[in-house]
Amino acid sequence: MPGLVVFNRRWGIASDDFVFPGLFELFIRILWWIGTMILFTYHKGNFDCNGSAVLRTYLVGLLVVLGLIILSLCAIVYVSAQGKFFSVHLYCIQIVLKGTITNPGPRRSIPALVYLRALLYIPELVWASLGALWVSGDSRGCNPATVGAVISAVVASWIILLITGLGVVFVFDPLGDSRHQPPAMEPLGVQDMESNRASQFFSTARSLAVKVWESRLRLLCCCLPQDESQRAAFSSIAQLFSKFFSDTDLVPSDIAAGLALLHQDQDKMERSRDPETIVEHSPSSPIEEDLEVELEKAAHYMQFAAAAYGWPLYIYSNLFTGPCKLCGDCCKSSGADYDIIGGDHLGCHFNSILQTTGLQYRDFVYVSFHNQIYEIPFFVALDHKREAVLVAVRGTLSLKDVLTDLSAECENLPVEGVPGACYAHKGISQAAGYIYKKLVNDGILNQALSIVPEYKLVITGHSLGAGTASVLAILLRTSFPTLQCYAFSPPGGLLSKALADYSKDFVVSVVLGKDLVPRLSIPNMEDLKRRILKIVSNCNKPKYRILIQGLWYELFGGDPNDLPTEMDNRREEVLSQPLLGEESLIIRHSSSYQSLGSDDSPAHTAVHLPLFLPGRVLYITEDGPSRRPCFSKPRYRADWSDEMAFRSILISPRMLVDHMPDCVLRALNTLISNRPFSLCPSSFSDNQHNVI
User: Where are the transmembrane segments (predicted)?
Assistant: First the structure.
């Protein structure tokens, strides 16, 4: 940070990203050089075979080329990792800084070293070709071991050249052309004259970024059929991504380092809080009674939300017995039995639903596995145990579902009788509209309720299915006033505040631990980006040390207080001031520094509407230390929370694991089996999430 500028363009790699790849290649090259030297010394420069002169020339030249490459790699690794100190005078205060993530000054010689290393690929290519010619033509009569060693050297050369080419493709930035870089800073007297030029530049750059992201999406989804809905989704997602990444000069390793630092910083703040005071409730208190009833219902309906995923989740949850059960059921199922099922050719999806829910075939009114962008699978069944007509919506399981998830712009969702602005997640809103038309226009709900008119309507789902179920419940609320919705791990960027408040009468959201998805929204992602920029700017450690310590912390834990993340001896007011001096020019000209120091730059014009979790939030956390032995059984506690407690993304190894439907189901079943439930005060939930 900022991205390295070489060959007249910016690349997706920074000057401090050469430590690990440089050390790895250096290790290979040193072993290679030692092996070549042993071979040459063993024969004492005399090779008794055809083409010995060519072989001698090849080995001598290879030793020289490898030696030069080793020296260049040593220089690159040293400069990329160095922490040279320098001074900056600011308001009569002398600040001593060193080469850190946001200060590439001490690494200013990296571009020259990269040019030198690139030049050394030319003699390496020539010598690899020379070795290949010798092996193919003049190696007759030579020692087989010698021939094998030369072949290994030639193959190694071509493999390294291939890996280097793939690396160049990987770090290539389509927007890195120097013609697309922002205009240089001008003196104050001419800044007004340059404002139009800057605005025009950002408009052109953003248009180009949208085209680049559309091309990436088309390449990623090349296997999907091209239609109008897909092109509209690509355009919407490209607009979103181009806006999000337009105002930063972060490279992927910067983000990894920032996430590692944030995790340690959040753990440090969490451990420094005072122990929570547990408020005891009598067994007959309304709070505990309500929580117990809802937990029992949630554990029951979560089975249906998990069943909607079909055979993939069933096999994942039953690795040893699942394949045998499904294989037998799928093979003996006749096609005539599955007239109501679409998109399930062998019936494996439906049989896994039968196995998971324990229902009979006659209990299903409608089952669809049709899957397109904004059109997701669902089923309608009769739940006789709870006397409910149950609609279960599947979560994300395909690339088409991912595109629906990523269509995260706001879309108006007017609801009669709801004051305030009513809008929702675009992709999920359209998916709910698709299911609404199926249920109402095709008469599916009327058919189900005609069989059991006394049953109530319940809608459930997990992840994308939870968000769709919540919006669907809002759409059906006026026609079915008694309906209930249980949304498990719903996306955080789902409903406007007015709709979120409206849904609290009939929607219960269940969130487990540090699950990422319920905290995932565009404003939360913008907040995460700002926190990453701030923490990497204030960190006094080189990136390679941050990554090593962060990996160790994630794998083995430790004390976050042993991993300092803030600049030593720097006052907060100093951090808010721009640096002066030659070393700060690179940062000042980067858009990352702009985003840190100015909120009114052209890159900050986009404002995203806030979106919230639906309904009441039932929050489940592990009771005990944050880290436990791998094979120990977790203990959980549950409490009511609210949507405002999920306005910040928590970094944790469990941020993805806690989202898995089998983990949510296991936590609910554990709470049900371990009565009485562990309760904690509402302030616990607030403090748990307000870690910034």
Answer: 20-42, 54-79, 113-135, 147-172
What is the architecture, at CATH level 2, of domain 303-333+345-515+612-625+633-674?
3-Layer(aba) Sandwich (3.40)
Let me know if 157 is a catalytic residue: no
CA 231 to each of CA 110, 521, 641: distance values in angstroms, whole numbers, following the listed order: 42, 23, 39
**Do residues 305 and 392 touch, judged by C-beta distance below 8 A?**
yes
Residue 500's nearest CA partner among 601, 615, 407, 594 is 615
**216, pLDDT greater than 90:** no
What digits encode the pLDDT tens for the residues 153-163? 888 888 988 99
Quickly tell me which residue has 């490209």 as its tokens.
238
207 Cβ contact partners less than 8 Å away, ≥ 6 residues apart: none
For 399, counting Cβ atoms within 10 Å of its Cβ (0-12 exposed, 13-18 middle, 19+ buried), the class is middle
Distance CA 107, CA 15 (A): 6
274 catalytic, yes or no?
no
Cα–Cα distance between 609 and 235 in angstroms, integer? Answer: 19
Other C-beta atoms closer than 10 Å to the C-beta of 114 total 19
Q: Which of 220-234, 595-609, 667-681 has the lowest mean pLDDT?
A: 595-609
Which residues does 366 contact at the CB level (< 8 Å), separation at least 6?
A: 340, 379, 380, 438, 444, 447, 448
The catalytically annotated residue of 515, 537, 595, 652 is 515
pLDDT in tens, 316-358: 888 887 787 777 666 555 444 444 556 665 678 888 899 899 9
**Which is the catalytic residue, given 246, 463, 591, 652?**
463
Please give the backbone phi and psi of residue 335, each rounded to the nearest 5 degrees, phi first.
-65, -25
Mean pLDDT of the chain: 79
> pTM of the full predicted structure?
0.80
Chain centre to alpha carbon of residue 583: 33
pLDDT at 593 over 80: no
In whole angstroms, what is the distance from residue 248 CA to residue 101 CA?
14
Check residue 181 and give its pLDDT.
54
Task: Please list the alpha-helical segments (H only) found in 383-496.
Answer: 399-406, 426-436, 444-451, 464-476
Tens digits of residue pLDDT in 498-517: 999 999 999 999 999 999 99
Distance between CA 45 and CA 360 in Å, rounded?
82
Domain ranges of the chain: 5-86+96-171, 303-333+345-515+612-625+633-674
